[in-house]
Amino acid sequence: MRYLSLAQSLTRSSRRIRIAGLVALSACLFAAATHPALAQGTNDWSELQRGLYLSRVGDCAACHTADPEKPMAGKYALDTPFGTIWTANLTPDEETGLGEWSADDFWRAMNEGIRRDGAHLYPAFPYTHFTLISRADSDAIYAYLQSLEPISQDVMEPDFPFPLNIRFVLNGWNLINFEDRSFTPDPERSAAWNRGYYIAEGLGHCSMCHSPKNFTGAVKDGDAAYSGGMAEGWLAPALRPGSGGPGLSDWSKDDLMAFLRHGRNSRTAAFGPMAEVIDKSTRHLTDSDLDALATYILDLPESGEAPADSEAIDTDDPAMQTGALVYATQCSACHGPDGEGIPGQFARLKGSSLTQSSDPTTVVRLVLEGVRSVPTEKYPTPHAMPAFDWKLNDAEVAAVATYVRNAFGNSAPAVTADAVAEIREAQ
Amino acid sequence: MARKLPKREVVIVGFGWTGAIMAEQLTAEGLDVLALERGVWRNTSTDYAVTNAQDEVRYRFRHDLFEQLSRETMTFRNSSDQTALPMRMLGSFLPGTNVGGSGVHWNGITWRFLPSDFVARSHNEERYGPLPEDMTIQDWGVSYEELEPHYTTFEELCGISGKAGNLNGRLQQGGNPFEGPRSKEYPNPPMDMVLAPKLFAEAASGLGYKPFPFPSANMSRAYTNPLGVSLAPCTYCGFCEKFACGNYSKASAPTTILPVLMRRQNFELQTQAMVLRVLKAADGKSVTGVEYITPEGEIIEQPADMVILSTYINHNVHLLMVSGIGQIYDPRSQQGLVGKNYAYQITSGVTVFYDEETHINPFIGAGALGMVIDEFNGDNFDHSGLGFIGGGFIGQTQTNGRPVESLAVPDGTPKFGAGWKKAMRENYGHSVGIGTHGAVMSYRGNYLDLDPTYKDAYGRPLMRMTFDFTENELRMSDYLTDRAVEIAEAMGGREMTVSRRKGPYSIVPYQTTHNTGGHIMGASPADSVTNKYLQHWQMPNLFLTGAGAFPQNPGYNPTGTVAALAYHSAAAIRRSYLRAPGQPMVQA
Description:
The complex is a heterodimer of chains A (427) and B (588).
Chain A: H1 2-11, H2 15-32, H3 45-57, H4 60-64, E1 77-80, E2 83-86, H5 103-112, H6 127-130, H7 135-146, H8 170-177, H9 191-203, H10 207-210, E3 229-231, E4 234-236, H11 253-262, H12 272-280, H13 287-298, H14 318-335, H15 361-369, E5 371-372, E6 384-385, H16 394-406, H17 417-426
Chain B: E1 3-4, E2 8-13, H1 17-28, E3 33-36, H2 44-47, H3 56-61, E4 74-77, E5 85-86, H4 120-128, H5 144-158, E6 166-167, E7 170-171, H6 195-206, E8 212-213, E9 223-224, E10 230-231, H7 253-256, H8 258-261, E11 267-270, E12 274-280, E13 287-293, E14 299-309, H9 313-322, E15 346-353, E16 370-373, E17 392-397, H10 417-427, E18 431-438, E19 447-455, E20 461-466, H11 471-490, E21 495-499, E22 542-544, H12 559-575
Helix pairs in contact in B: 1-12, 5-12, 6-11
Organism (chain A): Pseudohoeflea coraliihabitans
Domain Cytochrome c (chain A): 46-149, 191-301, 318-408
Main location (chain A): membrane
């Protein structure tokens, strides 16, 4: 470590020189001994590429790159129900980043949620998922992070109230919510499924958003897993049929792979936090990893909990009648008179799992605020849905939301004007 | 004192259709391209949301998408012996501003010109003998055959909906039998016709004509263009011309090119950059860049290896004039070429009124939704003994039923009050308009120069337009109108009104935004400003795109040809110019 720090401090002013320094350093280390810290400061091209790839699979940049000018330097304000957490600086800066960390330190953080100084990390950092990953993958990510430009950026402590501001209490949280796991392939399942499990439950940490959380903020498992959760005020929809709605029950693997690769498919387009996930993470996945992820997600078992009220609301219902009128005048130009949308451009509402989610938050927010899709190589046009908050009142938004959830063969609970008012207020 | 910025390889002035086409083509070649646009960025989905874009007051009457005359305008007069006055309100034509330019608010009618249009002088002289002395029409120096692949490129970019009439020389049923041979069918089928164009087509067929669907940049179905950009099917909302389409159903630079162009690292767009002049080298043999002013009033000098002027016709000409590039045309001496051969379009109309059982549903419309005949365009008919050359198309487009603008009432209706309201109620939804759209030849006395009196907001002299319809055009328009009346009679309505175009030309009522000429292209520097690649004859690193290159204005909407000329120019730049930058691609 001392050598590394020295090399860095000597050459910090220039990246090119710094890399040259590291090359010299690794040569020196190789020559010196067979110390376990050999992996540190590696300049192995394939190891760094693997680390970069895995950091994308884990979508590290989503939370750790707040400013594109300062990649992985953290300080992204993460709002949680308990207060705000500022994300860590992952660059190899000695004072403020991971400059002093060893691969072992990094592994302990990933695997157990414990910082180099022994303090507990708050579980907004998904060590509850990362605990699944292999030591080799942890080391590759570590090597990649250590190869970055060190950026000095101090990160504040969370503004949590007492006693949550005492990191020691996380011992208790971990006792209830954390299990130090490692990945063992299920021989009954295909290699693709196993790889998909490893990605989704490990680095991908999909359930952090797509599952509901308990009162301590931990992801629920069992029947509740993947039945939909909240992310930045948006509903991350259920991925499997059950209490959260129909999930992805009628999505094909091609649908899901196209969605994760291109941000769109013939049914819908990603927006909000998922658009960012696609842009920073899933579009980079290799074909086989994407296939594996889709294989696993589409194989999630149907939840034991019955779907909520599955009877479509009658068309004579006054809300449905108002909703039909609002839909025809405001929505049908893009989404089509029968909710069929335009593949790759405007979302299909007919049969849409998101539209029929038990929790209507996202549907209501879409109508109120509008959203923009993420432009990708295949779909460069940033199609957007305009905001209607200036135009439709709470009752009209509720009516049109109720309508799209119960027209075109859809069925989902009605949305009330009060619910709309609450969501409007919250944003 | 201007602040001087680092030199760029290509600077494009004006970012409408041709600016975007040139930028796309030249960035694809790897060049570093900076586009300067006087207007602002507009986001298609949200700024033109289908839920609020259909606002007649804002767009049609308060000109939200059009250029601001308080900033720069022109003066106008009908003839050299009059004193020109400033145009203080837009009327006859409606140039756009902002990213995408006028191509954002167009109707979307996308023609190819006839092969004979490109050789208008030699063709007509050969067939009909000497032309009137004051008629200054010219051959273009480029042929239909040379432009054919570029027309195809543009049609595929836009996803034009239409039916070919001539595929590689073989006539096709249902298309325009008069068009030049095309190498490919239109990328999309024609739009779905509503009743009005069907009534027109039926009547025209009965008279022996061959009606066909307007070639339309309104999408008949979802389409992904060769750049990978998607367009959505048209909803026939009836808000094309003078409006922007937030539904991605009308091809424009923002809906077909920008999503790809904006992702390219070697492209930069600077909005609110008002270019005041083009800078010349001391020896006058090249341009060195442009000078623009920021919204804060700072003057910026932007040096460039190559400058492409892609502003609206009048502004391209004006920039040449105020930059001292080339000699301004003088009709008395007939010296000078800048501003020469300004031309326009001549239009007329017939409205057929039906009884109330015939439901036209005019609110189901699109800019280029309709049927048309081409029997009387260009030289598709024998002009012997008619006393004019040129022609135009006769067509029925159901563009809109907008409640303020589109209120046809029969002759004799009071202009206001209860009688007008009654006629309005009775006729809205029961009338069909037929339009004629004719060529305007160029003349010694129709031209652009600088006004001696009036100046713009930046202190530059205004451009002065001197223009009137001549006998050739008025006769031609009457002839077309007579044919339209015959079709209207065969359409079986209750009554009709006929609006003939009479002289003198007035700049007040809206006609078309099809201004042409002023920096015309040609085969020789003796009679043109640019060569056939739109390259300036004397300053080979200066290019001028747009309809200012037209030596005269044929009987079609210009956009297809404007775009084809830009692609033709870009192809030559990529193929030849970049191997010998700064050199003329055609030897004088």
